[in-house]
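1st attempt posting a full record on here, be nice pls
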Amino acid sequence: MGEKGEVKLIGAWPSPFVLRARVALNLKSVDYEFLQETLGNKSELLLRSNPVYKKVPVLLHHDQPICESLIIVQYIDEVWPGPAILPKDPSERALARFWAAYVDDKVFPAMQGMMKAQGQEEEKSVIDQLLGGLQLLEGALREVGKGKRFFGGDEIGYIDIALGSMLGWMRVTERFSELKLFDAEKTPLLVQWADSFTSAEAVKGVMPETDKLVEFAKILLARFKSQA
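the predicted structure (as tokens):
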């Protein structure tokens, strides 16, 4: 769907935020060109397309830039036909936006904090924050998903994309911390949800491999330590 060159995505393969846009485009069966950025070397196209934040992802649709991952997902949902990503009901749409924002405001910062924590006390604090956040999301999945496979019901929706984009980095976090984030006893719904999300056709071709992400994380941590 779409003419060649009509849709381009400026991104980087390790970015969970770029993954959101890729999953949304796949759900809508949109053909697009992926323009890969490299670590520490921002292209002129990126700087020109997103002069405010200077970061990926940026969706280019007829050369018109759309920035910020969740805004891009909403744009894709509104522009292209196909399965709905956001609910039609206004109250359900608001709830979906709420939990997606929660992922960005609470879950992702806690994941970053675990990777950078200095000392046992700081590490315990961010672990408690992350595990508490996942417990809340377990309850949200029960409430919003209404017993279906996804937050969006039978199909992947807005919250699924927001949280599912973090799964690769959650696995990296587990590797580094030897901590199980999704537990079959404490978060059984999220365990099943994660399997369903990663095996979905729109996801499995673009989800980064965990081993590759681990190696990339080591590079990031080395840079962080050298700058600290």
